[in-house]
Amino acid sequence: MIESLNAALEISLLTIMIWREARSESFDAKLQVAWTVRNRVEHPKWWGKTFSEVITKRLQYSSMTYAKDLQLILYPIVGDSKVSECLNAAYMAYQRVATKKPIYPTADSYFDDSIEPPAWATIDKFCGKIGRLNFYNVDGDTGD
């Protein structure tokens, strides 16, 4: 019971983060955003060891922790059609569901085109781009 409650809470938090960060993006982008959290959990370094720790680590997912991010106070409303896609992406990444894999399986970070590229966004760490999101493997782990 406790494990299923923990999973439900982590998937819910991940769903809100995906909704805030990528709700207007394609399903592939949503899944890729979710997978950045999965990759950080699997290779914790300084990010955290659980989905909750990673998602709420200060300034890692700005829509969840940065006071100046306008998304921080937004929540989906009943009937929001984008929530189900965000929930599906969260569930797939959390459970490692094999029906759909991320396009860039080693990406652990990303940034939106609306901001200047961060210092960590170097060409040697670039995995690829989906929509307005640029994905990177910052920690160098390859998933092996």
Description:
The protein has a domain at 2-99: Cell wall hydrolase SleB, domain 1 (Arc Repressor Mutant, subunit A, Orthogonal Bundle), CATH 1.10.10.2520. Helices cover 42% and strands 9% of the residues. It has helices spanning 2-22, 27-42, 51-55, 62-65, 82-95; strands at 109-112, 126-130, 133-136. Helix 1 crosses helix 2 and helix 1 crosses helix 5. The protein is globular, with a radius of gyration of 14 Å. The termini are far apart. 35% of the residues are buried. The mean pLDDT is 92.
Protein traits:
Arc Repressor Mutant, subunit A; globular; 3 strands; mainly alpha; 144 residues
Task: Map the helices and strands.
Blueprint: H1 2-22, H2 27-42, H3 51-55, H4 62-65, H5 82-95, E1 109-112, E2 126-130, E3 133-136
Antiparallel strand pairs: 1-3, 2-3
- What coarse outline follows from CA principal-axis ratios? globular
What string gives the helices and strands in order? HHHHHEEE
Radius of gyration from the alpha-carbon trace, in angstroms:
14 Å
Question: The CATH topology of the domain at 2-99, please?
Answer: Arc Repressor Mutant, subunit A
Distance between the termini: 32 Å
In CATH, what is the homologous superfamily of the domain at 2-99? Cell wall hydrolase SleB, domain 1
Q: Architecture of the domain at 2-99 in CATH?
A: Orthogonal Bundle
β-sheet strand percentage: 5-15%
Q: What's the total number of strands?
A: 3
The number of helices is: 5
Oligomer: single chain
Overall structural class, as computed from helix and strand content, comes to: mainly alpha
